[in-house]
Amino acid sequence: MKAFKIIVVIAFVFISIASAAVFISEKINTDKTIPQITVEEEMIEVSLKAKDEELLKGLTAFDEKDGDLTNKIIIESISRFTEKGVCKVSYAVCDSNNNVAKATRMIKYKGYKSPRFQVLDNLCFSLYEHIDIRNHIRATDSLEGNITDQIVVTSENYSVSIPGIYSLDATVTNSKGDTSTIRLPLILEDIPLSAPKIELTEYLVYAEKGKTIDFKSYIVDALDSKEASLKDKVTVESKVDFNKPGTYNVHYYVTDSLGVRGHSVLVVIVGE
Questions:
Q1: DSSP class of residue 244?
Q2: Which of 34, 189, 216, 239 is most solvent-facing, going by the fewest CB within 10 Å?
Q3: Strands 219-223 and 36-39: what pairing?
Q4: Taking Cα atoms as reference points, which of 103, 99, 94, 102 lies closest to residue 33?
Q5: Secondary element (H or E) of residue 242
Q6: Do 247 and 266 meet the contact criterion of CB atoms below 8 Å apart?
Q7: For strand 43-46 and strand 36-39, is the pairing parallel, antiparallel, or unpaired?
Q8: Which among 131, 110, 121 has a CA at the least distance from the CA of 46?
Q9: pLDDT above 90 as % of the chain
Q10: 221, 228 in Cβ contact below 8 A?
């Protein structure tokens, strides 16, 4: 029994020594170095459709044990806009011992423009037709493309049963937090469904300040109830001031042989 106790004690001592050796070895061999990410420029310009390769340009990473880790850098996140067209990008890199380094820098999307609206059809309606304004408005973004499903349309004074010129406010926000708002007319008239139709190439145009537009050039045709053309009889009424930024409505009118008047409207946004 005494000999057995001695063997147990000796075994315990050997196990303790081995465990201590392993512990010391792990401590000695543990990689305590942290990788470093070097950022050449604090802000870079990138294209609107920039891929990861472009977003990673100008970054290098190095670790004392693993060496060059540049090809291991990943994009952790891209923020919403800190200002129009500018985001903060967060990067990270990990070495073979799971030590992590992080870095950030700003990127600017070259040529970025806020979301823009498109009006797909005439905003003049007969009192006797069904109106679904959602089918008339579209929004596109230079980063995300079609964002029509993000449009919110509101009106404080619209009535479906009373003729008049109403105001619609359309707002759209892209995923970066940039919001565009436009005020559109909704013209409801007590005219028959057979009233002449004036078709335009566009129903919303963006114009540069100081540059005029030939409004008649937007007329495709004007047809009466028998499909006869009245294009040469269309008149245009405009109070657009191309030297003053703002939203304006240009009105197109034509009257058929029965004295019924057709009406279309073109929304013109004069920029800064």
A1: S
A2: 239
A3: unpaired
A4: 99
A5: none
A6: no
A7: unpaired
A8: 110
A9: 83
A10: no
Task: Tell whether the model's pLDDT for residue 3 goes beyond 70.
Answer: no
Q: Which candidate, 238, 235, 261, places its Cα nearest to that of 126?
A: 261
Question: Rounded distance, CA 215 to CA 122, Å?
Answer: 15
Largest pairwise CA distance in the chain = 127
Give 98-126 as a DSSP string.
--EEEEEEEEEETT----EEEE-S--EEE
* Average pLDDT in the chain: 90
The DSSP secondary-structure symbol of 229 reads B
Instruction: Decide: helix, strand or coil at residue 26.
Output: helix
Q: Are 270 and 207 in contact (CB under 8 A)?
A: yes
**Edge to edge, what strands does the sheet with 164-173 contain?**
124-126, 179-189, 164-173, 152-154
How far apart are the C-alpha atoms of 20 and 31, rounded to whole Å?
19
Which residue do the tokens 């909704």 mark?
186
Instruction: Give me the long-range contacts of 153-161 (CB less than 8 A, separation at least 24).
Output: 155/186, 158/186, 159/188, 160/131, 160/188, 161/127
Tokens describing residue 167? 């105001």
